[in-house]
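Note to self: keep these together.
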Amino acid sequence: MDYASSQASPGVESPKALSAVVAAFQQNSRRKNTVGSDGLANDREIERQQEKERRQKALKRDRKATGLVTGGIDAVLGDVQKDWEELVDEEFNAVPLSLALLDSSSAGRDMESFHYTKRMLEKTLKGSVDEHYQAFANAVGHHANLLAGLTKAQGELTEARSQLVEARDALGNKHADLVQLWSRGQTLDEMMRLLDEIERLKNVPDLLESLISEKRLLQAAILLVKSMKTISKQDMLDIGAVADLRAYLITQESSLRDILIEELHSHLYLKSFWCERRWAPYTPNQTSRKSRYNTNVPIPEFDKVVHADGSKSSSRMELFLNHLTLRPTNESPAELYSSIVETSTTKASSLAPSSSTTSYLTMDPTISVAEVDSTNPESDSFTYIETLLEALSVLGKLVGALDAVIQRMPHEIFALIESTIEEVSDRSEFIRSTRGPEAGLGKSLAASSTSSYIFVERASTEELVASLRLMALEASAKESDRETLRDLFWSLFSKLDAVVQGFRVTYEVSNRIGKRRDFKDTSGAKPSSLFPLTDIWATMSSEVTVLLRDYLRDDDQLAISGRNPIASINEVLRSGIRIQDKSKSTYRFADTDSKVSAKLLKKQDEELSKVLKETVPGLITSTVTDGSNQATSGSAALLDDRAGAQHHRSLIHPDALHVTVLFQPTFAWLDRVNSRFPSTLAVSTADAQALLDDFVLDVYLPQLEEKVQSLFQDTVSAHDAFLEDPGWSTLSATPLIKAITSLVALVNSICAMMRVTPFHHENYSRLILGVIMQFYSKCSDRFQALTTRTATVPGVMAEASNFLTPAAWAQRQDLVKCLVSLNTAKPSDHEARKAFCQEETHLELSTLGINPLEASDTLGSIRSLSSLANLFQSLVWFTERLASLRTVSDDPESPTEESSAALASPSIQSPLMPKFSSPAILSDELKLPLSRSMFLRLESLLQIYSQLADIVLFTIRADIRCRAIYALQRGLRENLFTPDQEALDPDVFITELNNDLAACDEATAETLGYRERCFVFAGLPALVEHLLMSEAKQISAANALGISKMMRNITALRQGLKAIDVIDSSEADFKTAKDYYGLFGLGATGLLGLVKTQPQFTFEEYKVMLSLQSGVAPSKADDLPAGDGGDFALNLLELQTICVD
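Structure:
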């Protein structure tokens, strides 16, 4: 304390500074007391130097890393902040730092570093001043100017403040003249507003007409409603100058409503030119094959929607409804256009839709405003319909307009159908005039000018058989008429589909409008369901029903007329009191042309409509749509209630068989209608389907059955029914009879009808089976007519005794068993076939016994044999065709796959028929779907036909054998074999037999297949050889020349049989017969000797030869008296002894 007092200078005035100095000295003194020895101080000095060096190195690295230049102002400031941070502190005290610098111990600060930093700072500051002295000098002047400006602004603010105070005091005083001026200003503003409103209203008529002409009807409706609200205000009612304008706007409201309704009808019923893309016209030969009814239907251009990403939409309506559901329900067009309408005072262009309304007017929000403006509003029909409904909603006339649509619907649908009929009629007339009267035969090609069937052009014979159709069923009318019918209904149903889509859009948009909170209508109707689709579908289906009946029901063929119910004369003249049937009219005008009458009355109708419009506006509506196909008149509207009961002009004569043409378009349309209506709505096409169902049951099937029966009777009862069909070569390798080909064509036609009629297949199947059963009876009658001795009753089985011998043999059970075994034996198994032939020969000859065959026992002419062969081949071909058609349907009564396989392979099979199988059903193949019971019944019928075919083939074989038996028996019995001279030619009966066999071979070669011919002639040489030996007993006498003639006969027979290509030449060498007749030359002794050494024949055969050698007739050898035989008796006794031994 004393030390501090002695060191203080007299000039120090601050006791605080002195206290700080004293405190620093005391702290330094304490620091010295804490220092130890000198060695410790030196160590600390060394550490401090090292630490200083490290800091300098680190500082250099940091400056290098940060890019600071050594010696720069930034570098120096960095050193100060790092090493002398207390200098930059706002509360810096210099005394502690000074003492630390004076302290030379390790606890002090480095004086040299401080001086170095000071010099560097002075140097850098001087450099900065030298570098920027000019800027510093300029800054001084600017600073002075700034201070002057601020001083001036402060004075101006003070003056303004004083003026404001004076103004406040002045305004606080009241002035009566200002109140009067303000009141006059308000009045003038109101007058200017009224004048502006009147000026704007004066432009409304021109603007309104411009919008209507441009078909911007929603904008017109909004403009009209806004103008009506404006002109109906109380201040406007007091202005008489706008009275005429008010009356005009009221009239325009009614006119605009009528225009909107007519435009709506134009797009609902496709009257507008822009609606042509919504339906697809008929294309020739348009059918449906890939799906149930129709997938090959052309898509209208309007439905071909392709987005920017390349994706396609199945329906334009679906795309529209999807965009409709994405928009808010309460979005009102009036709100969207309110701001636009308010500013549209002079120019119509001000009503152009803005970008905010583009999504409302267009179906696709991606369409730009320029595209909307450049296209006609009617180009997008669905959007245009929405615009019309929105406009009607703005006018408050939506409910009334929808009621008008419903009321006019019968007439509009009727008119649409009539216009379509006219279009199709014009097209058909043009085609007939350009191609001739026989145009339009399509792809059908008749087999010949006399054929009763036609073909669809195919490649192979099998496909030709599948394409065989009965001309009477397939072409009851010309193909051109059928094409006209297809054109009418495909085109009409395409239009009706477009109409249904329009109704669906109207339904969705009207319901959407009705759900808005601010929805109001002048009628006061509740916004529940504004557009009942159920009633609309009922009306449309009724009209379609009438049209279908017009082309399906033939009044001339029905007991009660359905189209034009007129009371008959008998009903009118019937005696007694009769209550008149009001459903029938007494007469009708048959020669009245409604179109001609409409043209004649057109002028008067227009005058009447004009008068009514002038006197009672809104009562009569007129069509204003340009390019519409039909004109709607006021008088025509009176027929709306009767339109549903009217019938359309028929392009072709009605026929029940037209149902095969109408089913495809009708069901394709019904399927599309189901997809058009919402799933939540109880609208079903069951009524239309029930109509077709009832028609098929009540009219079509009975008429079809009657027609099929008539055609069947005409086919099988014709004089050439069982003759060879001239066109058989296109169907089979062997000839077929006409009745068979016509019946197959009939069955194919019925199966083709089944493909286009999706129900009542069992009725078709039953009809086919009935025809097949009846035809079996006809085939059986034909067989009996060819194989019986006397005429038989058709349908009654002849007695066994009345059949000719070949037919009787073919039906004997023992012979049938043998023949079946022979036919099933393998061709290489010669021994088995030979044994069966021998058994057959034995059975046939044993059946004859001692009674020889007569000429009347055989079929007689070769023509009968050919007829039987044709019948057999036709039966085989017919059963093969039926087997390829049959298939098991998918109904609940159908068998499973295992049972179907079992049914397809019956246990009882004809050896001459192929193994039947049930092939898989292909979509393009013609098939006969059958239930389980029907399948089994057809299986039984096929077996019966197979048995009949077997009997026919067995009869052919038996007849050829009977011809050989009869010829040899008669020849050996009637010819003499004791000539006086050697004969050079064979006997006449041998020549006749050869000719007869050659004729049989030629007939069978033309009518039977190779396998059947081999079966027919199998074993014939063995039979002839056996007869040559066994019938030798019929020879009364013989000599050497007679035996030589017999050898010549055998040679001729051998040559004749070898000429038949299906007979093996090794079987017809007749070596055994030659050896037998060679025994005659050995004499009795030689014969007996040969029997002893080389027995070859039977005792009876040796006995016959021994009789001929002895000059005894073989037939009388057993009748010789005892002792009169001479040598013959002895030789016969010896022969018996040898044979017994």
